[in-house]
Specification:
single chain; 94 residues; mainly alpha; 4 helices; 0% strand
Length: 94
C-alpha cells in the first residue's frame, strides 16, 4: 500500500507498537483456545453478507460497555481491535 512509508522509523507517542503486539497476542489466543479447527460464527455471518454490520455492531457493543461491565476492562478494547481488524479485512475483499 502506498500509504505506508517504511523508510523512516516512527516515534510512537501512544505506545502503539506495544499495544498492537498485545492485540495480536490476544487474537492468537482466541484462535488457540476457542476456534482451533472450528468454524467461527463470524465466518457464517461474513458468508451471509452481513459481516460489516456485525463487526460495527460488536465494536459499538464493546465500546459502550467499556467502563461499565467489569469496570475499565482492557479485554473489551482488545475485542474492539479484533472486530476492527476483521472489518478492515472485509473492506479489503470488497
Amino acid at each position: 500500500m502506498a500509504i505506508f512509508n517504511k523508510k523512516k522509523p516512527v516515534e510512537y507517542k501512544f505506545d502503539e507498537d506495544r499495544i498492537l503486539t498485545v492485540a495480536q497476542l490476544y487474537i492468537n489466543k482466541t484462535y488457540r483456545e476457542h476456534y482451533s479447527g472450528k468454524t467461527q460464527s463470524t465466518e457464517f455471518v461474513l458468508d451471509s453478507g452481513h459481516g460489516e454490520g456485525f463487526c460495527v455492531g460488536n465494536i459499538i457493543k464493546y465500546a459502550s460497555r467499556y467502563g461499565k461491565k467489569h469496570g475499565k476492562n482492557k479485554l473489551d478494547i482488545l475485542k474492539i481491535i479484533h472486530y476492527a481488524v476483521i472489518l478492515y479485512s472485509i473492506d479489503e475483499t470488497d
